[in-house]
Amino acid sequence: MIPENITKAHILQGIKDIDSEGIKSLHTMSKIYDLIYEDKVYPPKLVISLANKYANGEVLHYSKFNTNEAQKRLRETSAEFIIKTKDNDPIANIISRYKDYIKANSLQEEIYKWELLKKYKNRPDTKAADFYTEVKQVNFSNLIYPVGLLVVYHIARDMTEPYRECFKRLFNEKAPLAERVKYFNEETLAIYRKLVPDERFSHHQDERTIATFLTYHNPSEYTLYKHSFYQKYCKLINVKPKSKGQKYVHYLELVNEFVLEYIKDDGELIGLIKANLNENCFEDENFKILAQDILYQTLDKQIGMGRSYWRIGTSDGTNSYWELMEQNNRICIGWNELGDLNDYEIKSKKDIDNYLKAEGFYLDDNRLRSRKAGEIFNFYNEIKIGDVILAQDGAAVLGIGIINDEYQFNASDGFAHQKGVEWKLLGSPLNNSEGLRTTVYKLSDINLINKVNTLIDNAGLKITVENSQIMAPPLNQILFGPPGTGKTYNTVNKAIAITNPEFNLNQPRENIKQEFDRLMKNGQIIFTTFHQSMSYEDFIEGIKPVEPKKEEHAVTYKVIDGIFKKACNPNSNIFYLGQKVGSYEVVNISPELITMRKPNGSLISFQFSMLLKLLEYLKSKNIHLDNFSGKIDSEDIDKKAFPELESYIVNGYSNIIPGLLKIISHNKSELDGNNIVLIIDEINRGNVSQIFGELITLVEEDKRLGKDEALEVILPYSKQKFGVPPNLYIIGTMNTADRSVEALDTALRRRFYFTEMAPNASLIAKEGRLRHQNGLLEGVSLPELLETINKRIEKLLDKDHLIGHSYFMTVASLDDLKSAFQSKIIPLLQEYFFGDYGKIGLVIGKGFFEDTKDANSENVFADFDDYEASDFSERSIYKLINANNLSDEDFLVAINQLLKK
Questions:
Q1: Per the database record, which ranges form the ATPase dynein-related AAA domain (predicted)?
Q2: Which CATH number is 476-530+675-756 given?
Q3: What is each CA distance from 570 to 109, 522, 668, 669, 678, in whole angstroms?
Q4: pLDDT tens digit sequence for 6-54
Q5: Does the structural domain 309-458 have CATH classification 3.30.40?
Q6: Fewest 10 Å CB contacts: which of 107, 248, 496, 716?
């Protein structure tokens, strides 16, 4: 509140101070309003703060009042004080976007935060008798980094009391927050090092984790935090971010100001949120959780943004059209034979495909024609005004621009299909390998998009979009969760979406599996499973024995490529073993060489680099492959431009070279546009450090071939240079019921994106075989059955050992449900509880057991002096009943006993 005794004279003194000393604090700067006095601009809050110094002897702290109060006081004090709204307020912009998004989509994706905070407020309870169990029972969802949560459980289990003490210190409101954050981080690290001395393993008790603990403890005073949107918000308001360990404290200060200045008095915003919260939600009277949600959704998730980014090729393989594009402010593509696309009724790429076919394009390659039809359709229909364009020759970005005009057809130009563009940057230093060898390609590399935005910003155009509406799948990701949650099932969909984005996944499962099998056969999807005996030699490369062709021949040894190396070798998808090229046969393919068997049985190898150089040479000479004899006269070679070719190809292999070049020319561009997916099932069961070896660094996005920080290594056995291509995606799966998850190699943690696959009972009713009955079978709700079982398991163990929904998805009859219990659920419970039938009984009830007490049990034990065996003789022995052998009536009785009905 602003003191009543501040007068115009005091305000003028404050203005005088600003004139002489300038603005020292960003907190007092207004982001919406300016005070105009004698044609000068002043921040209203700072003026009032300084005026209070002359009225009451001290500067009024910015947190004591808001901008609305400051501007009101200034207007009331004097007509000379004019309040003017700024033209562009970035914070007001993100709030406006947030409101629009909530109106259209509600809080459906983020409401879980309010629900969790009501359910688990004031937890974990440091006074709980069993602090480990207390920590395990709190559902932190995705608010703590998944691998970090495993470390939390590890410390809580093995160092319970020291960890409890850390929480007590963290929750002690009497101590300064900065000290508490510092203590918790450092002390938990010291505790963790007693458990895991290896410094490669992070303890993950960082500011994000600490913020989550504090918010659960007291959501009225604290809020959730992520480094990503904190950094973006600092950039948005032009505030320098704090260093590590000080970020969360600073973030809370910014949030408090955000609430005070923008949220507290915004009735529309508050009304929108209240309308979307329910009785299961934390009330958030201080709007701290709302503030976090606005920052997260607008800055990290980029809700409400629709700009797309595109790669446009500038050459047809022979001629460059960059000069046409640059001088005429246009982007252009070929296929002039199609004519003006505005003359057709084009609804999909299928229409373009038909027109290409009618004009005789790609008649012998339906897939290539389909892909090119998609590129033309994207150019015509999908590239919008405002989209960002990267005009490229290969990986080189020649220009960056913004689309400013619609499609037009100029038949006189070599590339006749055109759209207007305003070039913002010519001669860009940027290189981009995403979408290489395509004409039109929608970009999704978030790092590339950020670099493009930075370049445009520096060129004078401010783009507030930090990424587009599309979200690229991570290059390295791991799906983790309990058994039966659909981890392996979902890798199929994810792999298809990456390798064939145009495939419709809303089809029967058989169709999806057929497409998956086709992509595996084509080499675009590779599937493997890690196990304890998997080695570097199996995964990367190793020396293996080669079986002799004749018994009298000695065993020889050869360097054999492993699964990962093959996945990284694009040449293996251009040719295949056993392929005939003329009278020659392909017998080996490596990243550097293709080895052929001649008709006489001898072998000859060709370097891919030389074959590509030869293609480049022929292009420079305008020699069509159909007219190439396979021989080049030495005198014709430009020895400066192509010094390698003279010694390599002068004598020619006229009967094989043209055939090889045609295959490379035909398939190389098709291959380069495709993504490859390597699926590693049970990735945590192998020794990741040993299996990946030195290559674990190479899978990082910025270390991939073609990236700014690209790395290559020399492999130990083959001595070949090796790097990981940018189009290789790795999808791993992990079973959290396997204890080895907790010891997951830290190198893997840092380089993979983790997605939790939790049991989802609602899917049984929505997508299971009983979906038309809403998951009901003979009066039994299968979703309720799964939730009941899992609640009990979580009480007895933890959420890592739950039962997945997939075991119930295929149930359509009582026989199916019996089989699910007998072959899936009961064996898992036996594994989880190590045969402790008492705990198994607490989960599924007595209906699945029989008492096998022996009538003659009194005489079962041998005589042994001074030891009374009668207690044991009378003890009940329980045996699990085979669920398949139960009658329908008895089975339903057992199920209802489980459900306590």
A1: 677-752
A2: 3.40.50.300
A3: 39, 12, 9, 11, 13
A4: 999 999 999 998 888 776 554 455 555 578 888 788 888 889 999 999 9
A5: no
A6: 716
